[in-house]
Amino acid sequence: MRFPPGFGWGAATSAYQIEGAAKEDGRGESIWDTFSHTPGRTRNGDTGDVAADHYHRYAQDLDLMRDLGLRSYRFSISWPRVQADGSGRPNQRGLDFYRRLVDGLHERAITPMATLFHWDLPQALQDAGGWENRDTAERFGDYAEAVFHALGDRVPVWLTVNEPKTVVQNGYLWGHHAPGRQDPAAAYLVAHHLQLAHGLAVRALRAAHVEGRIGPALNLHPCYPADDTAEAATATRLYDGYENRLYLDSIFKGAYPEDVLADLGAESRMVRGVRDGNLKIISSPVDLLAVQYYTPIYVTAQGDTVRRWPTSEAEWQQIYPEGMYDILTRVTRDYGPVPITITENGLPCPDTLAADGTVDDSARIDFLRDHFAAAHRAIQDGVPLESYHVWSLPDNFEWAEGYEQRWGLVYVEYPTQRRVLKRSAHWYRDVIRRNGL
Ligand code: IFM
């Protein structure tokens, strides 16, 4: 099973999950510093203060990527490292870190792919209303401009907002992510402002006259009816609207889905918050679509969800590789043709470091093999898939789950920060070398 020549085999991370160095070189506070330091918010009270200490160990991590043969590395830039309070003159020391990282990638012939926002909103902006405040989207456009100015000559692919849906759902509906709110009315206004922020960043890149390509990073969940009834089909359609079309339609079609708008109601904060011209900004043409696939969703006639497939240590995940094929072919059919990159796919395993220094994560190998095969089939059926990033490179801070869930190809022994390649990493190196399975 060979992939197209030059296929971008990669791995992904995000700033708050791996960097640590929370108070160094002028970095400001983010909402995840606040949230993780609030008692009861994360498992075992874990925080990202040290994480995988990547800020200090990035050179070693770069060597590791080279040894694995990675062709692409997706990371995120910490907004509060670049602007401590989310606005104003950029912090040169923060930008310098990313410049060193990006240069190190080029030296090792690895293509950098940078995400501008992976959830670590500067706390000062949260204090001013966070994503409920339209001004945060404007600030994001300015921040993006500063980053493009500093790194635009050396980063060929940019992603705007990582998984806006997760911010909406986990941060504002269920409250188990920062900022920890349970406020449906606010949640969808936040969705709109995140989409606006995306569009403003796209425009900032065009205005900066740099070469790079840019697109959104969306976690898409294929939705299936749980049974054959017409009611389940109807409920599934609306569920899909909230999970997928809310983000895809606005970016690729310049309109929010009618069924979702009707469900929210004309008087909702979101619908009232959409101003003239906003959708034109949101639908500014993009160069690629980044898809993050983890799980399908099965919807009952009542609009509830049920489990169909085995889960992983993440209880929200069902292991269903066909879903990868379905979502890739669906976005190509409904929104294409647009080049696609998979920017996340993976699972947490109960990894342990054996006495002989190995980590046997054969479940991860099985998972990746099946998902790679589904992606390959999608390519054969016409999906313009150009790269695939496994989540994640090293074990890291899994948000509310702290360090208990291990998602990496590389085991991190946290007390010593020693890195150990798991069996899956050795296997992945082989896949990359052979350009296939
Ligand atoms: O760790 C997260 C990542 O930050 C965003 N996508 C899902 C991953 C696993 O939960």
Automatic annotation (TrEMBL):
It is an enzyme of class 3 (hydrolase). Transmembrane segments: none annotated. GO terms for molecular function: beta-glucosidase activity. Coiled coil: none annotated. It catalyses: Hydrolysis of terminal, non-reducing beta-D-glucosyl residues with release of beta-D-glucose. The keyword Hydrolase applies. Keywords: Carbohydrate metabolism, Cellulose degradation, Glycosidase, Hydrolase, Polysaccharide degradation. The keyword Phosphoprotein does not apply. Signal peptide: none annotated. It holds the Pfam family Glyco_hydro_1. Its EC number is 3.2.1.21. Belongs to the glycosyl hydrolase 1 family. This is Beta-glucosidase. It comes from Micromonospora fulviviridis.
